[in-house]
Amino acid sequence: MVYRLQKQQRYYVFLLVFLAFVFLFWILYKDNISIANPDVLSQASYFENLVKGNLKEGLSLWNPYIYSGTVFLANPLSSLFYPLNVLNYLLPYVISYKIIVFISLFLSSLFMFFYLRTIKRSNFASFFGAVSYAYSGMFITWLFIPSFISVILWFPLVILLIELIITKEKYYYGVFLSLLFATQILSGGLQIFFYSTFIAILYFALRLFYIDKRAKQKFVIRQSKYLFLFLLLSAILSSLFLLPIFEFGSQSIRSGGVSFEDASLHSIPLYGFVNLIMPNF
Predict the structure, then answer these.
(1) Spans in the chain with pLDDT lower than 70
(2) How far apart are CA 75 and CA 84, in angstroms?
(3) In whole angstroms, what is the distance from residue 258 CA to residue 265 CA?
(4) Tell me, what DSSP letter sits at residue 269?
(5) pLDDT computed for residue 202 by the predictor
(6) CA separation for the pair 250, 53 (Å, rounded)
């Protein structure tokens, strides 16, 4: 599907670019919050410098700087194969990191705008939804953890492709969907990827439920088979990254599971749900 932006839509897209620039300046330059963020200082910047320092020798399989040494390629947060991280290898991290933040803010809002237009929302409603998504609490909370926002970034495009696969029945969109799933996996934010994929599958199921088709059962079965194949293809495409992670996980102290007490150690108590309505309670 090729989008031909109308004149009014171009104005909204320009506003999305402008908002991303304004937010980038305010957060990264004026208040300089990113520099003080511990995840940027103590993990991400060192990871990228470790990769950059070993590019001439091949992949960095081992990180000698944590404890007595630990795996690096098999650490999901290394994000070695995530496409946007190529900027980290070409530019100083303090610059590339800011560019990736800008790209993430802009593309996430743009993809949400296109999705909402695809489901026949007005230009203003699509713009409002795009801004609400890209600058939502979850996105901004994880803005300084690159592997997490790299998953959230692609989610609107995932549900857009699912919408097109169901309504247009053009299955070449599924190839792009597989590439997107693989890209989300390669970002390293596997926890957020599981959340994203669960919502995408739920959207797929509910969308099928509302499709008015003859021989609906056959249509649902056929679409479900294709979605499974697309997910399988994404796992194959990202297997170079996934297989070391699975092996590393099998050797960890949590490979046999954890007790309920450990799993719920930092769970929100029941009275904490009051804060969803009254944050200062």
Answers:
(1) 1-12, 21, 24-60, 212-216, 279-281
(2) 18
(3) 11
(4) P
(5) 92
(6) 29
Could you report the per-residue pLDDT of 127-176, keeping only the tens digit for each? 888 888 988 888 877 777 778 888 999 999 999 999 988 888 777 888 89
Measured at the CA of 55, the angle between CA 53 and CA 61, to 5 degrees, comes to: 85
Please, what sign has the CA dihedral across residues 208, 213, 214, 219? negative
How does 139-161 read in b/e, with b if 16+ C-beta sit within 10 Å?
beebbbbbbbbbbbbbbbbbbbb
pLDDT, residue 223, reads 80
Tokens of 80: 């070695």
The pair of three-digit structure tokens given for residue 225, joined into one six-digit string:
């088979």
Helices (H), the chain: 7-24, 33-36, 38-39, 45-53, 86-90, 93-118, 123-134, 137-141, 146-152, 155-168, 172-186, 190-209, 216-237, 239-250, 260-263
Do 114 and 159 meet the contact criterion of CB atoms below 8 Å apart? no
R_g of the chain computed on alpha carbons: 21
Q: What is the CA angle 271-275-280, rounded to 5?
A: 120
Tokens at 95, concatenated: 């610059």
237, exposed or middle or buried, with CB in 10 Å at 0-12, 13-18, 19+?
Answer: middle
CA 278/CA 197 separation, integer angstroms: 30
Write the burial class of residue 102 (CB in 10 Å: 0-12 exposed, 13-18 middle, 19+ buried). middle
